[in-house]
Amino acid sequence: MDLGLKDQVVFITGASRGIGRATAELLVEEGCNVAITGRDEDTLRRAVDELGGEDHVIGVQGDMTKPEDIERAVNQTIERFGQIDVLVTCAGSSPGGLLENLTEDEWFGSLNLKFMGYVRSCRAVLPHMVDRGSGAIVLVVGNDGLKPSYWEMTAGAANAADINFASSLAEQYGPKGIRVNTVNPGPVDTDRWDTLEKAFARDKGCDQQTAHELAVGSIPLGRICTPQEVANVVAFLASPRASFLNGAHIPIDGGQRKGLMDIPLGDRATAGAAGD
């Protein structure tokens, strides 16, 4: 299906790797001009090269915890491509851990990047969209904003704030021709998920393989999502094909039931039989 995105200008935060990178790759294939941001300049430069060079892709080094970096990245994108039609926010990571072990810095770091980084990105881009009378914003958030788990508290708090924020923006800016939606992945096969598995294993007192099996066992589809599968949903929401979707919060987690991650592997059959 042609998504109708050809020649659209897309600004993606956190796009040098993971879900952001997969989204950038798909949107380049759809004929978009894409600006990607990331904190590590070498990783960002490699991503630009692998995405086809600078004809349709630019990389802008920046830290989304710094308002001046976001403003600079947005301005460079508009100087190069003339406009921004779509904003996709992916720059965000939060440490896993239990309440008694999480530090003040870890809480503030999660909220500063995963929530306030999204707020700053929207605040920088929205005036340009309002001037043009159209635009699409897709916040890549996470299913722990909708399905809380006590080993992902910092992410859950930031993501719940993102979802509330997106709903508010959808109501305020819908009349101005700007759609705002969120995509909420569960476990995705990225470097970040590897880090979360290690944290889960640490807090549960098991090895990482067991942690992985518990995660897979909580998903009815029986596997972890790929970054490309998330990118497919993001691209659809960004496109004119989703022209009447506004204020939606779409899970892409295979129907995950996080409570199952608390059931020891040896007890799964018993638990299933009890529920039959």
Shape: globular
Global Rg:
19 Å
| Mean pLDDT reading | 92
Main sheet, how many strands, which sense, barrel? Answer: 7 strands, parallel
Strand content: 5-15%
Adjacency order of strands in the biggest sheet: 3-2-1-4-5-6-7
How is this structure best described in words?
With 276 residues, this protein is an alpha/beta fold. 47% of the residues lie in helices and 14% in strands. It has nine helices and seven strands, in the order E-H-E-H-E-H-E-H-E-H-E-H-H-H-E-H. The chain has helices at residues 18-29, 41-50, 67-81, 104-132, 153-173, 191-204, 208-217, 227-238, 268-275; strands spanning 9-13, 33-38, 57-61, 86-89, 135-140, 178-185, 249-252. The chain has a seven-stranded parallel beta sheet with strand order 3-2-1-4-5-6-7, with helices on both faces. Helix 1 (18-29) packs across helix 8, helix 3 (67-81) packs parallel to helix 4 and helix 6 packs across helix 7. Mean pLDDT is 92; it is low at 268-276.
Write the layout of secondary structure elements.
Blueprint: E1 9-13, H1 18-29, E2 33-38, H2 41-50, E3 57-61, H3 67-81, E4 86-89, H4 104-132, E5 135-140, H5 153-173, E6 178-185, H6 191-204, H7 208-217, H8 227-238, E7 249-252, H9 268-275
Parallel strand pairs: 1-2, 1-4, 2-3, 4-5, 5-6, 6-7
Helix pairs in contact: 1-8, 3-4, 4-5, 6-7
